[in-house]
Specification:
single chain; seven-stranded mixed beta sheet; Immunoglobulin-like; 14% helix; Alpha-D-Glucose-1,6-Bisphosphate, Chain A, domain 4; 42% strand; 4 helices; mainly beta
């Protein structure tokens, strides 16, 4: 695209949430120097009367000479924002730097309402001083009700005082005491959503953690997408499956025939405050099912139970354990 030109992208978002865009040309250099921006998708039911205070904060490391300078957006020093006490606040945190960043919220209990554009189901409270380890490119939506005291959101490269910070001051209390931030505090663990997704969609590696799966061959190379075909064997059945739906870290469905039985298998993945809720449903149709429904129903129930348990154990084994001073909530996958 020539300087001064433009290109219009048209698409239909599949969900509301916090997203961001950046260049893919010379991205390491261009993104570090600021060629990126926020992309916020509002829900279709959004009300114009919603009084929630919203702010998007990019945690970024700007190259200054040979050093990297921590900043929220373009500011590497604390800035102040006045908010009415009792007003709902939603902060959309985006890590646009190449390394994970520690973000600390001090002065109020808060919730992580969304992770990477996916709403968290019934998010639990995170105590004041809680630290969010935000992966490169990652996004957390943080929510709280503005208290009558100051709240600090600070960026730390380690457990030390921050330079970059956004201070939220209750209206009429400009003399409010600023919370002390160190970067040290209880670490929020979002549970291994991406780990679970990667394990589940790496179909060629299924035999390494599913004893009942003998082998998997992908007829369609690359990541799973609608129309991808893979062949696999389990419990004496040779199955050819075609992927029907793929919603990254949210929903996966495939189906296909196996010895007179046609199966449809659907998985959904929902982050929660204590882990990831994994829900699966599978239906079988065909003459063998009609002829022996009770036996095949029991076999299907047992197969799904084993699959979810094996997935849980594999994800927990792959997930980095917490440090001694960073307790985490319960991790793993579970049936509803």
């Amino acid at each position: 695209m020539l300087p001064g030109g433009q290109f219009v992208y048209r698409f239909v978002p599949d969900r509301a949430g916090t997203f961001w865009y950046h260049t893919h040309r010379d991205s390491q250099d261009a993104v570090s120097r600021g060629l990126f921006g926020a992309f916020i998708v509002d829900p279709p039911t959004a009300s114009a009367d919603d009084r929630t205070y919203e702010a998007t904060l990019f945690a970024h490391q700007w190259p200054i000479g040979k050093a990297l300078v921590d900043a929220f957006d373009t500011t590497d020093t604390p800035t102040q924002q006045n908010v009415e006490p009792g007003r709902a606040v939603r902060l959309r945190l985006v890590n646009s730097s190449q390394d994970p960043q520690r973000i600390q919220v001090t002065g109020t209990t808060f919730h992580v309402a969304a992770i990477d554009g996916n709403a968290v189901h019934e998010p639990g409270p995170v105590p004041s001083g809680g630290v969010l380890l935000l992966a490169a490119g990652g996004r957390y939506d943080v929510t709280f009700d503005m208290p009558g005291t100051a709240v600090a959101v600070s960026m730390h490269t380690s457990e030390k005082a921050a330079g970059a910070a956004r201070l939220f001051i209750p209206d009429g209390h400009d003399d409010a005491t600023i919370p002390h931030t160190t970067g040290a505090g209880p670490m929020f663990d979002p549970a291994p959503l991406h780990t679970i997704w990667k394990i589940q969609t790496d179909v060629e590696n299924w035999p390494s953690w599913q004893p009942d799966v003998v082998g998997v061959v992908k007829d369609t190379p690359g990541q799973l997408r609608p129309g991808s075909v893979f062949r696999w064997s389990t419990e004496g059945l040779s199955i050819t499956s075609t992927v029907k739906q793929v919603e990254y870290c949210k929903r996966l469905a495939w189906g296909g025939p196996a010895q007179g039985i046609t199966a449809i298998h659907v998985w959904t993945f929902t982050p929660t405050s204590g882990g990831v809720l994994v829900h699966t449903e599978e239906s079988w149709t065909g003459d063998p099912v009609v002829a022996n429904q009770a036996t095949l129903q029991a076999a299907l129930d047992n197969s799904l139970h084993n699959w979810v348990n094996n997935l849980k154990h594999e994800a927990e084994a792959a997930h980095m354990p917490p440090t001694r001073d960073s307790p985490s909530p319960q991790q793993g996958a579970g049936l509803p």
